[in-house]
Amino acid sequence: APLSDSQPASRAVPSSVDVVVVGAGFSGMYLLHKLREMNLSAIAFEAGTDVGGTWYWNRYPGARVDVESLAYSYSFSEDLEQEYEWQERYPTQPEILRYARHVADRFDLRRDIFFRTRVNAAAYDEQGRTWRVRTEHGDAVTARFLVMATGCLSASKLPEIPGLDRFAGATYHTAHWPHEGVDFTGLRVGIIGTGSSGVQSIPVIAEQAAQLTVFQRTPAYSLPARNRSLRPDEVAAMKANYRAFRQAQKESGFGVPTPIPTKSALEVSDEERDATFERAWESGSLVNLLTAYADLSIDQAANDTAKRFIHRKIHQIVEDPRTAADLCPEYPVGTKRPCLDTGYYETYNRENVHLVNLRRTPIVEITERGIRTSDQAYEFDVIVYATGFDAMTGALTSVDIRGRGGAPLDEAWSAGPRTYLGISSAGYPNLFMITGPGSPSVLSNMVVSIEQHVDWVTDAIAYLDHQGLTTIEPTQEAEDAWVDHVNLIADATLYPKANSWYMGANVPGKPQVFMPYAGGVGEYRKTCDEIAAQGYKGFALS
Ligand code: N01
């Protein structure tokens, strides 16, 4: 049955609370639950009409998670963990949204969430030591703490192409998909973008559309997901072993337990390496590929072995050699987010699907009837934009956040985001970000990173209250040192070698810095725990 949306909150926005949470995705929901358990008053504002965040907005056909359901789920409630029944290895967007809605019902979260309400502005009041938060509806609320649970991939982005609003047909962005779905039957469809959203939706749209033309600027590395229904025996085994599994997640590099590789890709024979890559390819797990050898993410020659393996796969699957060549990426494997697909490369063997390589023939403009490249005019009934997000910072800087002295956050971050631990920023006392830039976030199983941040932030608030303190703010020195540390780790990897959204490269004018922390979830957690244990070292408390 189609999911119906939540009703708008019937009560008025309170004038003051302990904590304002912005966003009711996986972060905001767990935060609300946790804060209530601490007997703090908290409300959340959510732009959507229901909970779920990413899984509320991204309803494009074929949308799935690329971390297994039994791992991509909350660990904070053992009852939830034991009782919830996942259906698929890699669940679809509707299945994950159903889970989010189940969590909201189970913990009665909706009564403190104001849906259809975007936060416009938040200003720190130095005298009162509070945040004044304003919504698009003109409501204002004062809070001791402000937590931005706004997600890393939530500020969607249209391409900078002339004529965008000239097109007479229908247009859709993958992150703003109509709730009732789109029927492409018999239509001529153009899609721009071949990141994860494009790679997942292209095979599904191709099955419906009369013709599908894919406009590709940069090809993606994609592995077959090998999705399937979960077997009762594997679910039972996981449920019997969940505590140990969760612990292993916390200590792992990506929030997904995998053996730590010790060998170099260059020290083994070609046969052995091919066999290893083949097992990863067959396993349907990105992490298995990225951790197949110890040096894939740091050594170009090692990485080239994985690149050649995937190129070979693409050429084996895609029948037209020119299309196959166009689908082969040149940047190092893993330096842009790799994709997990269901029948992606195979889709290019369909008669009704055509690939346009924008490196050869760039888009010149969108016209009333379609898309014009440097060598051809294409006519469409529908254009789909799978063009991604202003990642990691977009959702934060689009709110007018003012810290000490009225300093706007987007100005403080004009040369790239500056945080301590990806959780807080100097000049912005009592403001926390969940999975902010400078934390592992997008390089990890998001749910693991979300839970860690929510636990850390709520512990910090409890600590302050227990000590009779009111404010927490990173020192400039601690923040500078953390930014240096994040850069140092990134520079030891191949990540900066690709024009990725990790680098801000997809947004014209955005400063090019590698935003997430690449040192791994386990290491990062240890650092955060040590800092807390030392009385929040690097933070000024008062
Ligand atoms: O966005 P993207 P996405 N002209 O930025 C192209 C997560 N996610 O929504 O690479 C032409 O990756 C752009 O080209 P280029 C996951 O973390 C996960 O697909 O900039 N093309 C690129 O091909 C993912 O990484 C899942 O050269 C233009 C595409 O549009 C992240 O979200 C599923 C263009 C954008 O790709 C974002 O994924 C979906 C222009 N002007 C998303 N501008 C899972 O499976 C942009 N492009 C879990």
From TrEMBL:
Keywords: FAD, Flavoprotein, Monooxygenase, NADP, Oxidoreductase. The keyword Zinc does not apply. It comes from the Bacteria. Its EC number is 1.14.13.-. It is an enzyme of class 1 (oxidoreductase). Its cofactor is FAD. InterPro entries: FAD-binding_Monooxygenases, Flavin_mOase-like. One of its GO terms (molecular function) is monooxygenase activity. Pfam families: FMO-like. Belongs to the FAD-binding monooxygenase family. PANTHER family: L-ORNITHINE N(5)-MONOOXYGENASE-RELATED. This is Flavin-containing monooxygenase.
